[in-house]
Predict the structure.
Amino acid sequence: MINIRSKEEIQKMTKAATVVRDLLNDIEGIIKPGVSTIELDTYAENFINKQGAIPGFKGLYGFPSTLCVSINDEVVHGIPSNRILDDGDIIGIDVGSIVDGFYGDHAKTFPVGSISDDNKKLINVTKECLIKGIEQARPGNRIGDIGFAIQTHAESFGYGVVKELVGHGIGEKLHEEPQIPNYGLQNTGPIIEKGMCFAIEPMINFGSEEIYTKSDNWTICTKDGSASAHFEHTVTIGEEGAQILTI
C-alpha cells in the first residue's frame, strides 16, 4: 500500500528532511584530503543529535553507522572507517534522520580536492538525473515515468544505471512502498497521487551498470571498478508536482 500523507505528517517529515539537508550542506566544508570517513560519521552523528533528531540509519537492518560513505567505485552503503580521503576521490554520502517518528533521507556526491573532468561530468549528470526524475513526480504520472527520465538522461552519456538498487516511499519507515527504480518505461507502474512521499535516488556508474557486494556484506561496488555517483532528495507530491523537502 502506498501511503497518502496528511499535512501534519508532511510537516514532521519536513523537519527530518531539514536536518539532513543542513547536515550535508555543513559537512561539505570538512570534506578534504586527509580526513577519515569515521571523522565524517562522528561529525554527522553529533550534528543530528544536537538538532534533537535521531540518526536514521544507525542500527537499521544492523547497519553500524550514521552515514553511508561510498568512495570512487563504491556505489552505496559504504561503512565509515579509518580510511583517509585522497585528493581526486569522489565520496557519496547518504544520511537519514528521524524527527517526531518520521524519516528524512538525503544523499550527495562530493569532490575531494581536485577531481578529474570525467568525475566532474559524472557528478553533474547524476545530479541532473535526479532533477529530471523529480520533474516527473507529479499527480497523474506513473512511477515508471520517473525511472524512464533518469535512465534516458544517464544513458545518453553512455553511463550505466544501477538497476538492483531503487528509490522508495518514505514516512514512518525509511523504506515504504512504492519502489522507485531508476529505469523503466513511460506510463507504467502505480499512478502518482497528491500526498505521496518519495525518496528518489539515482545511482549512476561511469562504466557498466553491473555491481557486487564486498565481503563486509554492506558496501556495494561497480564490477568494472569505474566511479559511481549518487544523489537523493526526499519529496512530497503536491497538486502541481513534487516539492523537494531536502533543498
